[in-house]
């Protein structure tokens, strides 16, 4: 015969009460938190799915924040370019007005002041900011796009943002696409170190490369070196490979040291700042890294194939005008900017004008050799060469306005009439650029709608997996409370001691 002791009854009572109490706590937690899964042990498979969904929702929220910034930049760009278009319409009206027979030197000089003020406004428009970022500076969004002289000072690379997985869009437009041209040469092995960093150059000196095996080598950069010379000197180190990035913007260094024990380190020596100017100063634990933008300036030795970020430059005939004289520039097989300028200046000499590399070393400039007339260039209906060189209309709003002002001050009717055509050209380009900005804004809006829908769907699925069913949880809680009370009452009756428990 099996004897049931009081201890056994007490223990069984405690176990049943504890089990019911745990159920009550779980039901109460679901109702108070609103979640069916509050910890991995509640549903390991469900928790894994919830974590994946939370990650997707977090990415969507991040993309939506990026799109907020993108929309702000694009909307501001659209408004600014629209305002510029309105200013250009006013400039064209003034050009037409000053080209008629009622205008004279005095009225034209007065209008020239208005055009000069317009140029100052264009500089301000070009340096528009959103959230402290210069939206027309490309990748150099921390610094102004246009300098005080009306020259482009930004990056040749567009500022892009990933607004959804696999979708990257430029969130603005470079000022060099509509305010003033930038030939934007890419770096190549023939680029001189003096042409880098916008013409500031790389100072002659030395720097030390310590590869990941710990071997240190001193590299010397001389004043007349090309980037190719510097790269050859660096690749004399057995473990180091030097190349130029695919976008032609930076140096890429790779250290192939097997089982490395150190980081790849590049330090300047002698206080020259040579490595910093090459964009490679610092210590990296990775085997390969890309330096900062080398930003080459335009020089006579710059290859035409390096212009426009390595896309090159198509050479179409265009016309030069200076007073009553004009000449057509016809190209042959020019390969460098110097050879290009020789061809242009051969034609320019016949109209008493000269073409040079502009002081900012980003484009070309044309100057009349006489004070009584103003020289300018006009592209053919199918060409774009003068525009891209900075001599024509199109993307050269500031140079065109400056030429117009000079024509008014010189009382040069031919140049004033020429400004009408050039203003038409910049207005057409401005409208095209504004359309491109609008298309980008539309793409962001469409992507936002898709990302919002994705976030909603993932949130809905997460809720289905994770959230508690309030009605079911409340019913479960009521049932467990009843069971718990019944357990306590029945257990109390069973384990209640009587006088007979103490007899015997």
Report what the structure shows.
- Helix 1 (6-33) packs antiparallel against helix 10 and helix 8 (397-410) packs antiparallel against helix 9.
- The chain has helices at residues 6-33, 44-98, 105-126, 227-234, 274-277, 337-348, 385-389, 397-410, 413-466, 470-495; strands at residues 129-130, 133-134, 160-164, 167-170, 205-210, 216-221, 240-244, 251-255, 264-269, 282-284, 288-290, 318-322, 325-329, 353-357, 364-368, 375-379.
- 45% of the residues lie in helices and 14% in strands.
- The protein has 504 residues and is of the alpha+beta class.
- It is flat and about 125 Å long.
- The longest helix has 55 residues, at 44-98.
- The protein contains ten helices and 16 strands.
Primary descriptors:
504 residues, alpha+beta, f41 fragment of flagellin, N-terminal domain, three-stranded antiparallel sheet, flat
The main β sheet shows up as: 4 strands, antiparallel
Per DSSP E runs of 2 or more residues, the count of β-strands stands at: 16
The secondary structure category is alpha+beta
Average pLDDT over all residues: 87
Return residue spans where pLDDT drops below 50 for at least 5 consecutive residues: none
Distance between the termini: 19 Å
CATH topology of the largest domain: f41 fragment of flagellin, N-terminal domain
Overall shape: flat
Strand content: 5-15%
The total of helices stands at 10
Order of helices and strands: HHHEEEEEEHEEEHEEEEHEEEHHHH
User: How many domains, in number, for the residues?
Assistant: 3
In the sheet with the most strands, the strands line up as 6-5-9-10
C-alpha Rg, in Å? 37 Å
* Helical coverage, percent range: 40-55%
CATH class bucket of the largest domain: Mainly Alpha
Return the CATH architecture of the largest domain. Up-down Bundle
